[in-house]
Each structure stands twice: as structure tokens, then as C-alpha cells.
């Protein structure tokens, strides 16, 4: 079942600035410490070249957490704009429950909770909209765990950022972070990493557009090797990353 689409807002200079800040590698959520199981895959020889990395990431984006998280982001955005507190609560629980392993749960919840704290401390949205009021309401709670795409959708709505741009930037940041993992661990050259990112552009556009039109009934993943890799990573002897 397709949910109502979130309204399209213009990408103003202010909105672009905030999206660049929120999805920057410098935003303090520790994204560089997570590999989404990719470190285990590289260790086992499943990804040893730029071409293999591109294939792996396309599958993760199309059939794994990329698409699923993008749908969660959009659904949270839509609910926050409408001031639907109960729906956002349900999406928060759903986003955590969907994680296939302990480390993937940590990856999403630690980044999401860190993102929420950073926004509360430095980028608190101005009151005046239902989404901003909802964000302030959540900010008054303590020890709340947030899945990353859900809290990003909430913040995007509270700041009046366009959902289509938020989806593109989120998927770009997700892919770029995993490419950075491969650049360090395979290792790949920086130029090869950028070639992989350039090759993912049409895939990211496709998934963002699909997620914007999708609903919760469309949630689901089929990236079993990635899920198993994230489980195996928990006991990997030598490692650089937390997932």
C-alpha cells in the first residue's frame, strides 16, 4: 500500500546549508566507525576491487538498508509534518526492530541518538510548525534511542528541509561512508572510490524516487549475505570498525 506522499518543499540556500551540515562526515555521529558488515566481507575476500565494491553497494542500496531506511526517513518526515506523535513513536520502534544483528542495531541506534543530541545542542529548530513542536517535545525526553533514518526524517521535517533532497543526501552519505571503509581496508585508491560513487549516482536517484512514493507495506530487505556478515563481524578477531 502506498502512503500519501510528503509535500515537496523548495531547496532554499538555508535548507541546502543545513542538509550539507547534517549529512557531512564531520557531523558528530561517528559514522566513520561503522562498516555495515563490509569489513567482514573484505576480510573474507568478497570485495577486493572497485568493481566488486560497486556491485556490493548497488545490492545494499536497492535491496537492503539503503532502500528500507529511505522509506523510514520519508514516512517519519510525513508523520512529523502532520504532528503525528504516535506514528513517529511507532516508526522509531520499527526502525530499531528491523535491525538484523546486534552490531547493526548499534550502528543505527548509536548514530541516530548521537544525531539527535547534536541537533538538540546546536541546531534546535525554531518553533512555529507542528514538526518543530514535535521535535521540541521529544527533546524534553531523556535516554531515548533513535534509529538514524527516523531521527533524520524528524529533523528534516522540523527544519523545513525538502524530503526529496534529504533522501538523496542521506543515500549519498550512506554510500560514501561505505566507500570510505573500502578505501581504507581493501585498500582502494581515492580515485577508484570516487569512480564507484559516481557510478552509484543513477542508483541513488532511482531509490530516492522509489522511496518517496513507497509506504510501510513496501518495507523489506533481501541482503542475506550482508546480514550474515554483520553477525560474523561480532566475533571477527582483528577489526577497525564497530560493525
TrEMBL record:
Report the principal subcellular site.
Answer: cytoplasm
Give UniProt keywords alphabetically. Chaperone, Cytoplasm, Nickel insertion
Gene3D superfamilies noted in UniProt: Urease accessory protein UreF (1.10.4190.10)
* Highest taxon listed in the record's lineage: Bacteria
Any GO MF annotation of the entry:
nickel cation binding
Q: Name one GO cellular component term.
A: cytoplasm
Q: Does the keyword Transmembrane helix apply?
A: no
Q: Which InterPro entries match?
A: UreF, UreF_sf
Compartment annotation: Cytoplasm
KW Chaperone (keyword) present:
yes
Q: Which Pfam families match?
A: UreF (PF01730)
The record's PANTHER family line, in alphabetical order, gives: UREASE ACCESSORY PROTEIN F
Q: What does this protein do?
A: Required for maturation of urease via the functional incorporation of the urease nickel metallocenter.
Assembly mode? UreD, UreF and UreG form a complex that acts as a GTP-hydrolysis-dependent molecular chaperone, activating the urease apoprotein by helping to assemble the nickel containing metallocenter of UreC. The UreE protein probably delivers the nickel.
Give the protein's recorded name. Urease accessory protein UreF
Could you tell me which species this protein originates from? Roseibium aggregatum
What lineage does the source organism belong to?
Bacteria, Pseudomonadati, Pseudomonadota, Alphaproteobacteria, Hyphomicrobiales
Amino acid at each position: 500500500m502506498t502512503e500519501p506522499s510528503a509535500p515537496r518543499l523548495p531547496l532554499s540556500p538555508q535548507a541546502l546549508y543545513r542538509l550539507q551540515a547534517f549529512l557531512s562526515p564531520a557531523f558528530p555521529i561517528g559514522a566513520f566507525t561503522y562498516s555495515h558488515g563490509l569489513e567482514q566481507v573484505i576480510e573474507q575476500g568478497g570485495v577486493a576491487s572497485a568493481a566488486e565494491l560497486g556491485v556490493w553497494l548497488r545490492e545494499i542500496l536497492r535491496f537492503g538498508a539503503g532502500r528500507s531506511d529511505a522509506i523510514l526517513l520519508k514516512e517519519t518526515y510525513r508523520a512529523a509534518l502532520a504532528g503525528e506523535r504516535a506514528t513517529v513513536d511507532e516508526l522509531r520502534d520499527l526502525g530499531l526492530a528491523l535491525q538484523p544483528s546486534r552490531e547493526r542495531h548499534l550502528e543505527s541506534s548509536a548514530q541516530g541518538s548521537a544525531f539527535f543530541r547534536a541537533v538538540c545542542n546546536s541546531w534546535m529548530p525554531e518553533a512555529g510548525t507542528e514538526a518543530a513542536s514535535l521535535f521540541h517535545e521529544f527533546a524534553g525526553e531523556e535516554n531515548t534511542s533513535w534509529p538514524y533514518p527516523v531521527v533524520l526524517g524528524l529533523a528534516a521535517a522540523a527544519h523545513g528541509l525538502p524530503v526529496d533532497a534529504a533522501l538523496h543526501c542521506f543515500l549519498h552519505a550512506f554510500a560514501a561512508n561505505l566507500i570510505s571503509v573500502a578505501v581504507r581496508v581493501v585498500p582502494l585508491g581515492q580515485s577508484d572510490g570516487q569512480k564507484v560513487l559516481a557510478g552509484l549516482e543513477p542508483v541513488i536517484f532511482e531509490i530516492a524516487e522509489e522511496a518517496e512514493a513507497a509506504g510501510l507495506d513496501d518495507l523489506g530487505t533481501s541482503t542475506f549475505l550482508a546480514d550474515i556478515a554483520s553477525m560474523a563481524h561480532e566475533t571477527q578477531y582483528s577489526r577497525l570498525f564497530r560493525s
